[in-house]
Known about the structure:
2 helices; 135 residues; 24% helix; alpha+beta; CATH 3.30.1330.40; two-stranded antiparallel sheet; 28% strand; single chain
Amino acid sequence: MADIRILNPESLGKPLGQYSQITRVRATEFLFIAGQLSADRDGGIVGRDDFDAQCVQVFANLEAALASQGAAWRNIVQFTTYLVHSQDIPKFMAFRLREFPRLFPDGAYPPNTLLMVDRLVQEPFLVEVQAIAAL
């Protein structure tokens, strides 16, 4: 089992959202999970034009990827998030405020880098989240 410590050094200040500044990891194996979109198992788009529904599906896909390798949310050491519209930042923050206490009940939220991109692989996708987990 990996030794994962989520840290927020005072020298970096308080994070601006549901994330932490640093993850310190001692592990023997890592999972690199490709960016997940709001696609179902058959490749159908879930939540067309509905940012919150897309977030729900993206995180369900991440959870499925973790479970397929015997891992869980506690194994996540870093996220990278891609949004198409800057207007969706408050919606993303609201989603995390609502869902992260359930996913990370100890309040140790992994670091997250949030990037704005011109578009994702298909026009209807609004959000993509990539993850790294330690086993």
